[in-house]
Design brief:
This protein is α+β, with helices and mostly antiparallel strands and 190 residues long. It contains five helices and twelve strands. It has one domain: Pnp Oxidase, Chain A. Strands 3-2-6-9-10-5-4 form a seven-stranded antiparallel beta sheet. A hairpin with a 2-residue loop joins strand 4 and strand 5.
């Protein structure tokens, strides 16, 4: 019951004929140095064999504008549907790996599988992050940080999709000196 989870579209396949999209909520960061992440996939899913074959995938972050496609790609099988065509999504060329990106996604995280860990109902595909592409209009020109608020990213919890909302504080705000906190609050009030 660890909620909310990210709702991402993972794109796989080595050629346009086998490109597929699988919606994943079981994904996350494993390590920052080297940068690594994981996805967990059921063996019966169409994308499972593509992941094992090519050992590469792209995590495409999703937005409120992609919510319908995110859900649809999670309930339809790539065995029966070409999800890129059905959802009018554009497969892009990854820079480092042999898997498609989803051009409409604000961030594409290219991943190279390093290990597959059988866990029971799902296998965990642990991967090294080899490239990240972010939509430039969502990068804050002052800080260089990705603007989650502008992107309208979505998360999944208890069978529902939610748009990420208001920031409550930055890392370390609970121990920040009161003077700095007060100045920031005054600036927000201006």
């Amino acid at each position: 019951m660890v909620y909310p989870l990210p709702a991402v579209m993972v794109s796989v396949g080595g050629s346009p004929e086998e490109y597929n999209i699988i919606t994943i909520a079981w994904t996350g960061t494993i390590c920052s140095d080297p940068p690594m992440c994981y996805i967990s996939v059921r063996k019966g899913r169409h994308s499972y064999e593509l992941l094992k074959k090519h050992r590469a995938f792209v995590i495409n972050l999703t937005t409120k504008d992609l919510a319908f496609a995110t859900d649809w790609c999670g309930v339809r099988s790539g065995r029966r549907y070409n999800k890129f065509e059905e959802m009018k999504l554009t497969p892009g060329k990854a820079r480092v790996i042999n898997a498609p990106t989803i051009e409409e996604a604000p961030i594409n995280i290219e991943c190279e599988v390093t290990e597959v860990l059988p866990l029971g109902s799902h296998d965990m595909f642990m991967a090294k992050i080899v490239n990240v592409r972010a939509e430039e209009s969502l990068i804050d020109s002052e800080t260089g940080a990705f603007s989650i608020k502008k992107a309208g990213l979505i998360a999944y919890a208890h069978g529902q999709y939610y748009e990420l909302g208001k920031a409550l504080g930055k890392f370390g705000f609970s121990v920040e000196k009161k003077k700095t906190r007060r100045k920031r609050q005054q600036r927000k009030g201006d």
